[in-house]
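Troubleshooting log. The previous structure file for this entry was overwritten by mistake, so regenerating from the original sequence record. Sequence copied from the archived sheet and checked twice against the printout by T.R.
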Amino acid sequence: MAHHVARPTSTADDDEADSPKRVQHLPPIWERSLPPPSLPIGVAGLAILTAAVGVLLVVSGILFVLNYYASIVVPASLVIFHVGNPVGAAVLTILGAVIVILSSALWHQEVWSFYLTVGFLFLGLAYLFFTGAITFLFLIVLALFIYLIAVRHHFY
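Regenerated output below.
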């Protein structure tokens, strides 16, 4: 004969009794809790320098286009870089805008900007090395390259 046991009809206890038991991890799961990386002074200086170059390129491209189409408003003496035609000036303006975005990402320590900057510095080093221009500029670019590799852990 089967023995039937009557169960209480409470709603709150039934849900907990019928649900599978949950076991917490002992000890709790370890999570890395490091403080956010601080902005190294060299990266800040590099970001400011790149932003200045980017703004210079954007302004130069805009001034060239304005001089090309409205030479009365913008005289030729204001043009910083003479690029030949408006298409070259548009490319110069877009390049400057990309450099400004790169400098902003450097300031915010984004990893993609680190890799892009290290890549540009490496290409600059290779160019200077293979053209035989191992000068003071080569040493500055090499120092920036080594410095960025040294502070790579500050990017996230």
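The two ends are 69 Å apart (CA to CA). Archived copy saved in two places this time.
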